[in-house]
C-alpha cells in the first residue's frame, strides 16, 4: 500500500486498491472487498487513521477473523471468549547440536 501511495494515489484510492479492487482483480468481489450485507468480512481495527497517513496501516490494534477477535500485539483472543495464545512450539525448540 505504501508503494501505491508513493506512485501518486490518494490514501482513499490506496485503501480501495487493497480491498475492493483487489477482490475484483481475483474475481471475488461478489463475496469480498467491501462491507455489505451477505459478504464475508475480516476487519482490522487501527489505532490511527490511514486516511490521514497511509503509514498508519501498520498500527493494527485488533483483528476480527471468522467472527473471532484477536489482539494484534499478543494474538490473544478477546472475543467471543478470552483466551491466551498457546505457546508455539518454536518458542521453546532449540537447534540440534
Keywords:
97 residues, alpha+beta, 4-stranded antiparallel β-sheet, 3 helices, 4 strands, 20% helix, extended
Shape: extended
* Class based on secondary structure composition and strand pairing: alpha+beta
Helices and strands, in order, run as: HHHEEEE
What is the number of helical segments per DSSP (H or I, 4+ residues)? 3
If you compute it from the alpha carbons, what radius of gyration comes out, rounded to the nearest whole angstrom? Answer: 17 Å
Overall domain count: 2
Q: What value does the average pLDDT take? A: 94
Spatial order of the strands forming the largest sheet? 1-2-3-4
Work out the number of β strands: 4
Uncertain runs: none
Distance between the termini: 42 Å
The major pleated sheet works out as: 4 strands, antiparallel
Percentage of residues assigned to helices:
10-25%
Q: Approximately what portion of the residues adopt beta-strand conformation? A: 15-25%
Structure write-up:
This protein is of the alpha+beta class and 97 residues long. It is 20% helix and 18% strand. The chain contains three helices and four strands; from the N terminus they run αααββββ. The protein has helices spanning 2-6, 11-18, 20-25; strands at 43-46, 60-65, 68-71, 77-79. β3 and β4 form a beta hairpin. The model has no long low-confidence stretch (mean pLDDT 94).
Write the layout of secondary structure elements.
Elements: H1 2-6, H2 11-18, H3 20-25, E1 43-46, E2 60-65, E3 68-71, E4 77-79
Antiparallel strand pairs: 1-2, 2-3, 3-4
In short:
20% of the residues lie in helices and 18% in strands. It is built from three helices and four strands. The longest helix has 8 residues, at 11-18.
